[in-house]
Design goal:
- The protein is α+β, with helices and mostly antiparallel strands.
- The protein has 9 helices and 5 strands.
- Strands 2-1-3-4-5 form a 5-stranded mixed sheet, sandwiched between helices.
- Strand 1 and strand 2 form a beta hairpin.
- It starts with 21 loop residues before the first helix and ends in a 7-residue tail after the last strand.
Length: 236
């Protein structure tokens, strides 16, 4: 590998040695060999007068403790405001790439399949809730044949709670001719244990569903890459 002097790090990447340029490395090697900073630099394309695209990428990643999930939760306006050299086009490109990564991890077309386990439910809820910084409550509606009809967000709240409107849940369920549902919400703290309020609300929704000849099949609590299932833990 060519050794660059300190002054060369401020040069545009087009003037670097070929083997040091992220784009050329991508062309000649497997993408998995590139670092997160190098991949981000390819997306960004160009840097500023004082920072190359790679240095800018390293700075961005350092600011989020190298957590791509945290970076994906930022808005375009936050990226533009917080990082000199990131404009609208680059901000949108960064967030679009991270969203594609999420969808590649758990493809959206899995929503069309039947749910046969709590893991299937987790994969449907994952993209919206696993790494959210505030609580969300969603439901997966199921048909009489057991197929997934739709995933719907019922409410979004703060870092510790969200308000759940039972009337809204069942109005939506009836509109979609659903006969069963799976509940899901996230704990931003990543503490997966259900709170007394979680248990109470689950039982309340289940009781109300029975009055309408509907079933609540499970309730998942998400936190990062893991989850808690009420069914798996014999809580429902």
């Amino acid at each position: 590998m060519a050794i660059k002097t300190e002054s060369e790090y401020n040069l545009p990447m087009c003037k670097w040695a070929l083997e040091d340029r992220p784009r050329e490395k991508m062309l000649n090697q497997n993408a998995s060999n590139l670092t997160d900073a190098e991949l981000l630099a390819i997306i960004i394309g160009t840097g500023t007068k004082s920072r190359s695209a790679l240095d800018l990428s390293r700075y961005i990643l350092q600011s989020v403790n190298h957590d791509l999930n945290e970076l994906s939760l930022k808005t375009p306006k936050q990226l533009i405001h917080n990082y000199k050299g990131i404009g609208e086009a680059k901000a949108v490109s960064i967030l679009a790439s991270l969203e594609l990564g999420k969808r590649h991890h758990f493809p959206l077309d899995r929503v069309k399949k039947k749910i046969t386990s709590s893991r299937d439910s987790f994969e449907i809820f994952y993209a919206d809730m696993a790494h959210a910084l505030y609580e969300k409550f969603q439901i997966i509606l199921l048909s009489r044949a057991g197929n997934v009809i739709k995933k719907i967000t019922i409410s979004e709240g703060g870092v510790a709670s969200t308000i759940i409107d039972l009337k809204k849940i069942f109005q939506i369920a009836l509109e979609h001719h659903s006969v069963a549902m799976i509940l899901g919400h996230n704990h931003p703290s990543h503490n997966l244990q259900p709170s007394p309020e979680d248990i109470y609300m689950t039982r309340k929704i289940k009781t109300a569903a029975e009055l309408l000849d509907m079933e609540v099949l499970d309730h998942l609590i998400l936190g990062g890459e893991t989850y808690y299932s009420f069914v798996d833990n014999h809580k429902i």
